[in-house]
TrEMBL record:
It comes from Conidiobolus coronatus (strain ATCC 28846 / CBS 209.66 / NRRL 28638). This is Defective in cullin neddylation protein. Keywords: Ubl conjugation pathway. InterPro entries: DCN-prot, DCN1-like_PONY, PONY_dom, UBA-like_sf. Residues 55-242 form the DCUN1 domain. GO terms for biological process: protein neddylation.
Length: 255
């Protein structure tokens, strides 16, 4: 229960924001009773503890209903394609993965009512125009290495078919082309290697470590540690690339 000092802070917060005592208390507690920090957080995200108002939920529900399947309470693949078209999103590009990640979609091209409403509420968007603007800002956010890796790791699990533990090359390769593209100068050679030499499904370990490989190993691969804990596919690719691309081969270390 708030003490007399806390009650004064709550009263001060309420007088400035017109928020309820409960909302004021929640913001102040989260800010360790620092009024300035609590006010900054409130004006940045007033719905954080109070929840969305009725109009917001109604607007968002109308968007959901516009794309919901006629026979199932979910947005399925056809509805998602229409939804992405109205958002100006290419379903084969990273933006589609960003939306899926932010809305916590578990199946490609599908959104449950709960995930759609809760996801966009958290992002404070209740109209298509607001969603478009938010997606643009998220695209910038996910360009950073730290945030981009979240999308990269998410893409593997998201793209698995039920019961699968590995991605077939027919799925993994388009994903790499979408996600990596020009980020890695030897992507074309990696794909060629997979199709002509490797010819196996891609495990989660290989998927995740390929990203670590392109982030940590130089394009000429002279700093690649053949004795490191890299997956077999990457070891074999380095050997393949050195021959195919005439890359320098490091001299063997002397024991």
């Amino acid at each position: 229960m708030p003490n007399s000092s806390d009650k004064k802070l709550i009263k001060n917060f309420v007088s400035i924001t017109n928020a309820s005592n409960d909302v004021a208390t929640s913001f102040l507690k989260a800010s360790k009773w620092n009024v300035e920090a609590a006010l900054n957080e409130y004006f940045s995200n007033p719905q954080k503890f109070s929840g969305p108002d009725a109009n917001f939920v109604q607007n968002l529900t109308q968007v959901y209903e516009q794309y919901k399947d006629a026979n199932q309470d979910a947005i399925l693949i056809d509805g998602t394609l229409s939804y992405f078209e109205d958002l100006g999103i290419d379903p084969t590009q990273v933006s589609a993965l960003i939306v899926a990640l932010e809305l916590k979609s578990e199946t490609v091209g599908e959104f449950t009512r709960e995930n759609f409403i809760n996801g966009w509420t958290e992002l404070n968007c209740d109209t298509l125009e607001k969603m478009k603007a938010k997606i643009s800002s998220l695209e910038v956010k996910y360009q950073s290495s730290k945030d981009f890796k979240k999308i990269y790791v998410f893409a593997f699990k998201y793209s698995l078919s039920p019961g699968q533990r590995s991605l077939g090359l027919e799925t993994a390769i388009p994903l790499w082309e979408c996600l990596i593209g020009s980020k890695y100068p030897h992507l074309e050679s990696w794909i060629e290697f997979l199709q002509t030499e490797y010819n196996k499904a891609i495990s989660k370990d290989t998927w995740n470590q390929f990203y670590d490989f392109i982030e940590s190993v130089s394009p000429d691969m002279t700093d690649y540690d053949q004795d490191g804990a890299w997956p077999y596919a990457i070891d074999e690719f380095v050997t393949y690339a050195r021959q195919k691309l005439s890359l320098p081969t490091p001299a063997p270390s002397l024991a």
